[in-house]
Description:
Elements: E1 2-4, H1 7-14, H2 21-33, E2 37-39, H3 42-53, H4 65-78
Parallel strand pairs: 1-2
Amino acid sequence: MSYALDSNLLIRSIEENHQQQDEALDAINKLVGRGEDVFLLPQFLYEFWVVATRPEKDNGLGLNTTDAETFLAKFESVFPIKHDTEAVL
């Protein structure tokens, strides 16, 4: 089966001390461990960027752009990106 990792899982997976971080990491690790087709969609990467770079006082993570880019590069090195094509829909 195929699974798209949405921005909520990406955000929670890096948000240290968040009550759902372990749950997000466990979900991702279970899917990968079972050999499932786990991928990203461009929209989720855009959403991650917006939340990651938004100030904490405005419900974001408050990361600088360099750190946000590092996380995105890591996600993209681990999971393939599927683009919104007729086949994906």
